[in-house]
Specification:
Blueprint (H helix, E strand, L loop, with lengths): L1 H10 L9 E2 L4 E2 L11 H26 L5 H11 L5 H9 L4 H16 L3 H17 L10 H13 L5 H20 L7 H4 L17 H8 L10 H14 L3 H4 L7 E2 L6 E5 L6 E5 L2 H10 L15 H14 L5 E8 L2 E8 L7 H13 L4 H8 L8 H15 L1 H11 L1
Antiparallel strand pairs: 1-2, 3-4, 4-5, 6-7
Length: about 425
């Protein structure tokens, strides 16, 4: 990135004189101006925008082609992303309306820059683009209608085998794109307003979590000596259960993020997903897990020994199975109108994200207000909390029913 910024300076000495360039920080020196009377702040802000375009172009090549671009490919893509077409190219572009997928690329480019998309979000939209291209390579944005939208949904269900929960998310993303295209004058249709499908089973997804008893059992379980990789995985998962952190955040947690000398001790971290800062007080369980790995010299000053998410989930399944976390769980899903149900042991569907769910459910069952829990988890509204509140409400009803049984026991006695 530094060489690219420096290259901008070197390629046009009329704009930025060499004496005004700070090589160490890759920016224009403060207090200087160029020949167009632009201040250093204005120039440096423009450089930051260009740097973002560079990242965007490189990310798009990685997602679409799984390789880095050649110099010529990069120049062409960069000029296109920044609107630096040659005069004849601009004239030709004005005469021809951009195609569906070209507009889609413009959408991801603008929204990605505006909303600071992560690589995972770019990957998500690259996947949607891939599905759209497989569905109909010659898609026309001008002619995209309600029936085309419905046909795309049918394709996702029948050809791609997607469940209703996934299809519903993809419909929402395509609708977002069409809204943007309409607002920016690329699309004059109304498919995003007219097509409102209803999908079965969107609210039937089981929330997988560990009960307090299961969590304590798992935390204190002694694994066989020939399974040395399982205790660290268990510890990282349990840390999520006691703090509510996502895997992406616990994987980035550094020792310097842990404020041990504070009263009470806490962690302070900027989340990867929302880029918001979280301040999470540490209970004794979370602190004891951190203490276990304090000072062992983990790579990158990491606070915990976190593996890749794929490896974490693989080892977590094995650890939970050995520990006997095998309560039967009913997994219900819908594909179109077809209902599918399978019963599996809990260890088979346990993932790193279940740690966050475990924290929320147990916190609610302890009577901690949802507003306080949201301060720890970073949730911005109550919508995401509803599934957990339903679980706790059901548990309250079951516990209240114990009074009935108690009365019967008393009479019989």
């Amino acid at each position: 990135m530094q060489s690219l910024r420096s290259g901008v300076h070197r390629q046009d000495h009329r704009i930025i004189a060499p004496s005004k360039w700070d090589d160490a920080n890759s920016c224009v020196k403060l207090g200087t101006k160029n020949s167009y009377k632009q201040t250093a702040g204005e120039i440096n802000r423009a450089l930051i925008k260009l740097s973002a375009k560079v990242e965007e172009v490189l990310t798009r090549f990685e997602l679409d082609y799984h390789r880095a671009p050649t110099a010529n490919e990069f120049k062409e893509a960069f000029d296109k992303a920044t609107g630096r077409n040659l005069p004849e190219e601009k004239e030709e572009a004005q005469q021809q309306s951009p195609g569906f997928f070209e507009v889609f690329d413009r959408f991801t480019s603008e929204m990605g820059a505006t909303n600071n998309w992560t690589k995972a979000t770019y990957t998500k939209f690259a996947s949607i683009k891939h599905h759209l291209m497989n569905f109909r390579p010659e898609l026309s944005l001008d002619d995209f209608s309600k029936s085309d939208f419905a046909a795309f949904v049918s394709y996702l269900q029948k050809e791609e085998g997607q469940l209703n929960t996934t299809v519903a998310k993809n419909v929402g993303f395509v609708r977002w794109f069409l809204h943007w295209a309409s607002a920016n004058g690329y699309y004059s249709g109304a498919a995003h307003l007219q097509y409102r499908p209803r999908f079965n089973g969107l609210d039937c997804k089981e929330v997988i979590f560990l009960t307090w008893e299961e969590l304590q059992h798992f935390l204190n379980f002694e694994f066989p000596p020939n399974k040395p990789s399982l205790p660290p995985v268990r510890d990282v998962f349990c840390f999520c259960c006691f703090t509510g952190l996502r895997y992406s955040d616990v994987a980035r947690l550094k020792s310097s993020d842990v404020k041990r000398d504070a009263v009470p001790p806490y962690i302070s971290i900027v989340t990867k997903k929302t880029t918001g800062r979280l301040h999470i007080e540490l209970n004794s369980f979370a602190l004891s897990i951190l203490d276990k790995y304090n000072g062992v010299g983990l790579p990158g000053n990491r606070a915990l020994p976190v593996l890749s998410n794929v490896k974490m989930n693989e080892h977590l399944h094995e650890a939970a199975e050995i520990a006997g976390i095998n309560e039967p769980v009913s997994v219900i899903s819908y594909s179109g109108s077809e209902r599918k149900e399978v019963v599996v042991p809990k260890y088979a569907v346990l993932t790193t994200h279940c740690g966050r769910r475990t924290f929320i459910v147990n916190a609610l069952r302890l009577g901690i207000p949802a507003s306080v829990i949201m301060e720890w988890t970073g949730h911005s509204d109550y919508k995401a909390m509803k599934p957990y509140i339903k679980i706790v409400d059901a548990a309250k009803a079951e516990n209240m029913a114990r009074f009935d049984n108690f009365g019967k026991t008393g009479k019989n006695g």
